[in-house]
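<goal> How does this chain fold?
<body> The protein record starts here
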Amino acid sequence: MAKYATRISGGRVYSNGGLVELDVLIEGGLIVGLLRAGEAADAHEVIDAKGKVILPGIIDTHAHTREPGYTNKEDFLTASRAAAVGGITTMIDMPNVEPPTDTLETYLAKRELADSKSIIDWGHWVAGTNPLEIPKLAEAGATGFKTFQVSGAYPHDPRLALNDEGKLMKSFRAIAETGLPSLVHPFNQSLFEHLSDEAFAAGKPQNWRTFSEVYTTEEIWHTAVNTLINLQALTGVRLHILHTHSAGSLRLVKAAKERGQRVSAALDPKYYHLTIEDLERLTGRACPGGFVTADEERMAVIWESLRDGTMDMIDSDHAPHTLEEIAVQDTDAWNAAMGSPQYDWHYSIALTDVSEGKFSLRRAVELLSEAPAKFLGIFPQKGALAPGSDADLVIVDLERTHVLTDEGLQTKCGWTPYLGKTVTGVVELTMLRGTVIAKDRKVLGTPGFGKFISGVPQ
């Protein structure tokens, strides 16, 4: 009898929406069989998963690796190392780097960098600002296109912003021709500027608290989302709305889906795990842009959207900055760097929500793995644990708890916005295409092992 490369034995495997006692057989980087305990099959390596669960690796559609141009914060290698220990096996990177990824030349140069460094599989969103470049970028394998409606201080690069509705319509039309998705950071820039001016005129300090109060104003977000949904109806583009955290925005998304529009939505955990009250506790290490007021209606709508399918996926918005850059928020928040590192404990944050009954394990896998894979057109090659799928998986102890600190983080910036948070559910092993790339919070993957994921028109 031929020996398989690997057998993961004794664990409960996520299969058909539930956990089943199965062993996983792996050969050639693929899952080739799921066996009941006791079924015969020899393997060169047997991994003991007794008492643990085996889940699909996360497919993260919202990463900022900061390379090229800002590698003092992060790079492809360090981001992918943090991803590996956090249970992420595929990441799609954003274009707001230096130079921005807005031409075929800059896109191909960025691909070369990732190809030599990333230890997990990867793809790139590129800028959707230039309709003439869009067909060339699509043909070259871009995953899709990213546009910011927000424009201001880095990381909201004005060169990547489209807050003119006519230009946004032209971009959507060009992207629709490719069959690839258009991701948009929604924002009513004009309203934000007027509300900021009112705050300054009232004598409010330009610190993180004032900024958060203005930035998270509901109307700034759902007026922008309304515009995007109307332009989607006009152009037929595959519209994917990021940072969908306002109650009004989520109601608009739900209504658009009920009308049959090609609209999807994503949210990153900082919007429902951290509030302005947390920012007070974490002053000096957390960016205000991702924090919302502890408004009961808003939070209720967010959690319900995660459960009922209005929210299609959880992304990370892994967006590292140094603590020195973040500290500017205390005196000049309008010019402070926005974003925070998320990768090192990304799966554990979601598994904590499962343990607390916020949503089911099935829904967590849908939000983190299955839905992103389908969105990218790579399911069930990725995002599933089935014969023929890539052996991209994690072994997790669902009962294990851990208090988050800065110790042992793989992200280059070296800090977490969840300082002091207790998580339940710890990733103990991460496997990519049958190779163990992280175990017991130690990185085992090698630079360049990650493969490029090309965009799939749908």
The domain at 4-54+389-401+411-443 is CATH 2.30.40.10 (Urease, subunit C; domain 1). The chain has 15 helices and 19 strands. Residues 86 and 344 are 4 Å apart (CA to CA).
